[in-house]
Specification:
By secondary structure, the chain is an alpha/beta fold. The protein is built from 8 helices and 12 strands. Helix content is about 30%, strand content about 30%. About 5% of the residues have low confidence. One of its GO terms (biological process) is methylation.
Length: about 250
């Protein structure tokens, strides 16, 4: 990590990806890299990252899978500018779109995201429950982390609208919100693959990673839990390899 005033430059994927981001406010971290490692994509796919921030998850997918057509959608102009700079600095082609994910279909189409035109959507929506989460005085951080009642449904609806039939939605969510997540996905998605993420073997899951297929009909699959630390408290070797860009999660394997 290097320091440049109010920004830092941070290495991800074992140095394969370097991202400039603000010191304060929302910062990309493990969630973004786990989401990228759980996202199935192939060369030639059109891939859209909702709520892209500085571009971490989408750019990580593009670093792993050459030849995708990447769009980074972000509501905050400052973060979008950082995402554009990060894409250029890493020599990754990406279309950065300043847009509210809850916008109308017409607004999406005007931004080049027409219905039924995308192969993969990945998202890390704001997921903290406002009833249990103290709002941050940093409005950018609050916008990135705190969900409204309709946040999840509106983001999934937007993803469903732009995905092709058979397209993939990949997302990360808090584990205690799994019921509401499954309810939102029940409208238009199937063939779910679910991966719970635990801090360690002794504690409940903190996150769930899910891949869902638009129009999918296959039974839901629940994968073995991913433990961030092993029984002795040591970082999990598999997780460390994934964070170093040396592997993917089973959800990314067709």
């Amino acid at each position: 990590m290097t320091d440049s005033g109010e920004f830092t430059e941070d290495a991800f994927l074992g140095g394969q990806l370097r991202l400039r981001q603000r010191k304060s406010g929302h910062r990309a971290g493990h969630d973004a890299m786990l989401l990228a490692a759980a996202t199935p994509a192939r060369s030639g796919d059109r891939v859209v990252d909702f709520g892209a921030g500085v571009g971490a998850a989408g750019l990580a997918v593009a670093r792993r899978v050459a030849g995708i057509e990447l769009a980074l959608v972000e509501i905050d102009q400052g973060l979008a500018d950082l995402a554009r700079g990060n894409a250029a600095a890493n020599a990754i082609a990406a279309d950065v779109i300043v847009l509210d994910v809850t916008s109308t279909a017409a607004a999406f189409a005007a931004a080049g995201l027409s219905p039924d035109g995308v192969d993969v959507v990945l998202m890390n929506p704001p997921f903290n429950d406002p009833a249990r989460h103290r709002a941050s005085p940093d409005k950018t951080r609050e916008l990135a982390h705190v969900a409204t009642v309709a946040t999840l449904e509106s983001w999934i609806h937007a993803g469903r609208r732009i995905l092709k039939s058979g397209g993939v939605l990949s997302l990360i969510w808090r584990a205690d919100g799994l019921v509401e997540l499954l309810a939102a996905l029940d409208r238009g998605f199937g063939s779910l693959a679910i991966l719970p993420v635990h801090s360690d073997a002794a504690t409940p899951a903190i996150r769930v990673l899910i891949c869902a297929i638009k129009g999918g009909k296959a039974p839901t699959r629940m994968h073995a839990a991913l433990l961030l630390k092993d029984e002795s408290g040591v970082p999990n070797k598999q997780v460390q390899e994934i964070l170093a860009g040396k592997g993917v999660l089973p959800l990314a394997i067709p």
